[in-house]
Specification:
There is one protein chain. The protein has 6 helices and 11 strands. By secondary structure, the chain is of the alpha+beta class. The protein folds into 2 domains: 75 residues, Ubiquitin-like (UB roll) (Roll); 153 residues, Alpha-Beta Plaits. It has a 5-stranded mixed sheet, covered by helices on one side. The chain has a two-stranded antiparallel ribbon with strand order 6-9. A two-stranded antiparallel ribbon has the order 7-8. The structure holds FE2/S2 (inorganic) cluster (FES). Its cofactor is [4Fe-4S] cluster; [2Fe-2S] cluster.
Length: 238
Amino acid sequence: MSVVTLTINDKLVSAQAGQSLLSAIKDQGIDIPTLCCLEGLTDWGGCRLCMVEVVGSPRLVASCVTPVAEGMVIQTESQRLTAYRKMIVELLLSERNHICASCVMNGGCELQSVAAKLGVDHVRYDYLCPDLPMDASHERNVMDPNRCILCTRCVRVCDQVEGAHTLDVMGRGIQQRVIAGLNQAWGTSRSCTKCGKCVQVCPTGALFKKGATAAEMEKQHDFLIWILDGREKKIWRW
Ligand code: FES
């Protein structure tokens, strides 16, 4: 595989042709916020938190879905990027009902942690307060779309790792939500293997285990899962 040379934060680095910018940035030990991206799953480019500046281009690009290119000059931190990232987190917080005090993932939520890291201490937008139907029909898990950020990790892990393709996304705008089957009660799905991977990859409390305490959910969130990513076994850790 050929090698390309690019500049990340004023440092000349090399990367594999075809590699995503995000993975090249991570290879340099640089931490940038992400929510939808997860190693072992295809990239989705939905949350836009991983945006970086490409010098010479007016547009910000989502680094997880942008391949490296010869001669690229990238900045991963700037006032403009921080402002955009904060705005994205605020929009996510205002779009659904992220009431941490009553959420089982309080303390183990990736959205909460990204918000804290970015210094989001208030939301400038009106809360939309949706009232989407919860699905507690599953034997083990509950789906609460009111806490979902539509990162589609659960949909992708169900399809690409478990091979069940039980979950999907339906609707638009504020009504958009993850569904089981063709919008049937999750508990009646015959394709669901009850593996729980969807719950473990959820970055918020949108999918949670029935009866689990906050501590158990945190432990589960930190659970090690072995997956086959096509070439080698990898460990996922949250
Ligand atoms: Fe790149 Fe979400 S991590 S768009």
